[in-house]
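The records we work with from here on pair a chain with its fold. These numbers are not coordinates but entries in a learned vocabulary of local backbone shapes. To see the layout at work, look at the sequence and tokens printed below.

. . .
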Amino acid sequence: MGAEVLLSCHPGIAMNCQQVVELAKFLEKRNPDIIKIVTGADTMEEQLENLRITHLLKQELGAPFLFLSV
């Protein structure tokens, strides 16, 4: 019908690189058009880890993604 599927996951907690990449690959198996993951970041260190995660997701995933932190 021409719609796109956004698969959205909101753990809402800080996650490390390995956890997020594993989650993204798990979600990718469901063949969404776009993957969205929202984690938490309460410290500068967690936010810097999220920047690293964004870089790794760009390398590892075949699907478009949106990675956010709150």
